[in-house]
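[audit] Reproducing an earlier prediction to check determinism. Same input, same settings, fresh worker. If the tokens differ from the archived copy the diff job will pick it up downstream; this log only records the rerun itself.
[audit] input (155 residues):
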Amino acid sequence: MPAEKLKKLLDDSHIKYISINHSPAYTARETAASTFVPRSEFAKTIIVELDGEKVMAVVPASRHVDVQALIQLDEAESGRLATEEEFKNSFADCEVGAMPPFGRLYDMRVFMDEMVSEVDDLCFNAGTHAQIFRMDCEDYVALEKPVIGHFAVKD
């Protein structure tokens, strides 16, 4: 089960979370709608390549990644969105596109848009298109220690 690695991390770290099963949904907007979660509280994980390194960019479901702003935040030379084909093998325990925003599980750095850090509860895919986790955003930030900045823009 894809969420097992994530559950172990959260349980071992004594972090409280709620697991929510739902009918399959394949976009962050669909998932937020099917689970009655405001799009501002549903975080989607986008894989970006910065100077050849794959990193996670976490933004609200209602936004997308401004790659140029992320390049500036990281002081990188170059960056682009990675294709699913390029990153799917990095997440062997997840369905493609349903990666949780925990880079520590996949040896990736994490960048989180400041809009995400402003919500009380954070919801995100738990490795499948039919399960999400909900947890306190402050707990997420304390555990994952993402680089926080402004790089999300309206769709």
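[audit] rerun output stored. Observation attached for the diff report: Residues 28 and 65 are 13 Å apart (CA to CA).
[audit] end
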